């Protein structure tokens, strides 16, 4: 018996948890927006909410909330322990969610580890590598020491940066990084020195699939191929890619990858670590305790096979079920369709913002063919003469929610010589009118702060 | 309307024409403060003669609120005793942490009362207090004992 949650099957707009991707059709944004109650609320004196902060966290459709509630009202129990009926059903629901997630990113079910969030996933790998130092000779492939190097990039989110800095501090290894290009390659990784950076000394190469600030999609295959050549492990931060388009980790050939539930219509408090099966089999645990053991004696313990080895304690169950429902929802719309939809919004936003005097896109802009390429829907920008906080405040007063600051990528901002940016980020529920509101709001910010004449975008203070 | 309640003309005037900006010698205490959530930063120096603050100089980068607040701070503090400065700081912190419920005293805060609207926006309170955190730390590093007795700036 299974309690797998497929609430989409009875959805009023006809989406179900089918394995097949719908035909290539434009998104019916008006219909799907009806699934997101929060999008109907008003903010700041009755302004309709324009939510452009999905890069930070996405909103959740009714189907996800219903799935969590249904699970809790019918099948809640601690999973992987107990033999009563509820325990069976809860365990089935939890493992069904794992299977959905595995299929969604093209990996085997045993390669999916549930974590608290993506940050914990990176830390799990980094701490497992520390723990390998005291775990015996068979763990040697995971151990680091002086003379070894970890390579990251300057565009990393702090979550894929600080854990590696700390691992270097604990082990004596050296941290090195790719810079971000200038001029023609502005906003792209500078891989011109890849042969000097990724060498026989490199043990780990950790990098983002898609920058949460620049929107840049990085050339995963090129970096992975180089890392393989020298025998380094690869760790991919897929937080900004998995929610927004088709991603297959086996095809990308990465060793580890992380992403978070709350950025893909799912609950917070749940993240995913993908690990290549043979690596998870060999790797020592990070957190230890209940659930992750094989045999416990007072003197010593042995550990369960993966993924359980990396899931100590009673896990987050309704969140896993909710994430499974989010994947059903995304599949019912089709990741290709979502990617196309966001591409159009991104192109319109980059074009519209670039057309405003004094506005500079921080990241890949409009290319010679009038389109944007190899970039996702995180659109960061600065406005000459108006601090990002102040731009954000004007937008907020108009009901437009964007992120301002360094977006947890402080070294990137420092490298670009800017303290902060304004970031608009899109998802499947955003519509062209949201882009229009954003562009008009930025013009209003310039007017309010006196860097443009009233009604004219061209004025300069 | 909400925007105008935060961005009073006084604040925008201080932002565009900051008072006392730039780092100067001599100084007796210095502090560098940063707002980790947004990256805004300030370096602030104090010159103390006896128990009188004879100069506050500062430099940094940040939003209009943080920059205007540092300019108002300069107006309110220079020429006063350390004790008076701490009293002013406490009044300003109380205003900013009051969620818009504190009625500011213009005799104490002068242009600082313009920040009453900012207090209604929790995310911006830190911006307004950045310079004052730096003042407190700079006075402490200058050995001004009263600085340690100021209220906690969160």
TrEMBL record, chain A:
CDD domains: SufS_like. The keyword Transferase applies. Residues 1-22 are annotated as: Disordered. Residues 50-438 form the Aminotransferase class V domain. Its EC number is 2.8.1.7. It catalyses: (sulfur carrier)-H + L-cysteine = (sulfur carrier)-SH + L-alanine. Its cofactor is pyridoxal 5'-phosphate. PROSITE patterns: AA_TRANSFER_CLASS_5. Keywords: Pyridoxal phosphate, Transferase. It holds the Pfam family Aminotran_5. The keyword Acetylation does not apply. It is an enzyme of class 2 (transferase). One of its GO terms (molecular function) is cysteine desulfurase activity. PANTHER family: CYSTEINE DESULFURASE, CYSTEINE DESULFURASE 1, CHLOROPLASTIC. Belongs to the class-V pyridoxal-phosphate-dependent aminotransferase family. Csd subfamily. Catalyzes the removal of elemental sulfur and selenium atoms from L-cysteine, L-cystine, L-selenocysteine, and L-selenocystine to produce L-alanine. This is Cysteine desulfurase. It comes from Haloechinothrix salitolerans.
UniProtKB/TrEMBL annotation, chain B:
It comes from the Bacteria. SUPFAM superfamilies: SufE/NifU (SSF82649). Residues 6-127 form the NIF system FeS cluster assembly NifU N-terminal domain. InterPro entries: NIF_FeS_clus_asmbl_NifU_N. This is Fe-S cluster assembly sulfur transfer protein SufU. It comes from Haloechinothrix salitolerans.
């Amino acid at each position: 018996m299974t309690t797998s949650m497929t609430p989409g099957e009875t959805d009023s707009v006809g989406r179900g948890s089918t394995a097949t991707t719908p035909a290539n059709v434009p998104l019916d944004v008006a219909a799907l927006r009806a699934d997101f109650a929060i999008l109907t609320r008003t903010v700041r004196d009755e302004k309709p909410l324009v939510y452009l902060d999905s890069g930070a966290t996405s909103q959740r459709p009714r189907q996800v909330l219903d799935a969590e509630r249904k699970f809790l009202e019918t099948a809640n129990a601690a999973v992987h322990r107990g033999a009563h009926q509820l325990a069976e059903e809860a365990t089935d629901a939890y493992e069904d969610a794992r299977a959905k997630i595995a299929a969604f990113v093209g990996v085997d079910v045993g390669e999916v580890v549930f974590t608290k969030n993506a940050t914990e996933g990176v830390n799990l790998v980094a701490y497992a590598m520390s723990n390998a130092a005291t775990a015996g000779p068979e763990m040697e492939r995971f151990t680091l020491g002086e003379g070894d190097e970890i390579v990251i990039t300057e565009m990393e989110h702090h979550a894929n940066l600080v854990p590696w800095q700390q691992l270097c501090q604990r082990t004596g290894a050296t941290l090195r990084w790719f810079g971000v290009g200038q001029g023609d390659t502005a906003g792209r990784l500078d891989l011109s020195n890849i042969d000097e950076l990724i060498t026989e000394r490199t043990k780990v190469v950790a990098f983002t699939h898609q920058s949460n600030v620049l929107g840049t999609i990085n050339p995963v295959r090129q970096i992975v191929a180089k890392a393989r050549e020298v025998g380094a492990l690869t760790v991919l931060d897929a937080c900004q890619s998995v929610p927004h388009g088709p991603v297959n980790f086996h095809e990308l050939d990465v060793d580890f990858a992380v992403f978070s539930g709350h950025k893909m219509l799912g609950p917070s408090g749940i993240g995913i670590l993908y690990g290549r099966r043979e690596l998870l089999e060999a790797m020592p645990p990070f957190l230890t305790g209940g659930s992750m053991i094989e045999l416990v004696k007072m003197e010593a313990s042995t550990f369960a096979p993966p993924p359980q080895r990396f899931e100590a304690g009673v896990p987050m169950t309704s969140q896993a079920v909710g994430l499974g429902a989010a994947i059903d929802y995304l599949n019912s719309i089709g990741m290709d369709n979502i990617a196309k939809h966001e591409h159009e919004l991104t192109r319109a936003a980059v074009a519209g913002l670039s057309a405003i005097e004094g506005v500079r896109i921080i990241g890949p802009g409009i290319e010679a063919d009038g389109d944007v390429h190899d970039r996702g829907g995180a659109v960061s920008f600065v406005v000459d003469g108006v601090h990002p906080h102040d731009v954000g405040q004007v937008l907020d007063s108009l009901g437009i929610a964007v992120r301002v600051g360094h977006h947890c990528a402080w070294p990137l901002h420092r490298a670009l010589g800017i303290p902060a940016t304004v970031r608009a980020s899109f998802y499947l529920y955003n519509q062209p009118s949201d882009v229009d509101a954003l562009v008009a709001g930025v013009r209003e910010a310039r007017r309010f702060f006196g860097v443009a004449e009233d009604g004219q975008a061209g004025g300069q203070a | 309307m909400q925007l105008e309640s935060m961005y009073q003309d006084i604040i925008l005037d201080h932002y565009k024409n900051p008072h006392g900006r730039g780092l100067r010698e001599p100084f007796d205490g210095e502090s560098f403060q940063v707002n980790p959530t947004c990256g805004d930063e300030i370096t602030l120096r104090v010159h103390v003669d006896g128990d009188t603050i004879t100069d506050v100089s500062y430099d940094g980068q940040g939003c209009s609120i943080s920059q205007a607040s540092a300019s108002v701070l300069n107006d309110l503090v220079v020429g006063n005793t350390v004790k008076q400065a701490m009293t002013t700081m406490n009044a300003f912190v109380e205003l900013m942490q009051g969620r818009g419920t504190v009625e500011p005293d213009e005799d104490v805060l002068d242009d600082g009362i313009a920040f009453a609207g900012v207090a209604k926006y929790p995310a911006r309170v830190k911006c307004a207090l950045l310079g004052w955190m730096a003042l407190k730390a700079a006075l402490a590093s200058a050995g001004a004992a009263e600085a340690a007795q100021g209220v906690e700036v969160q």
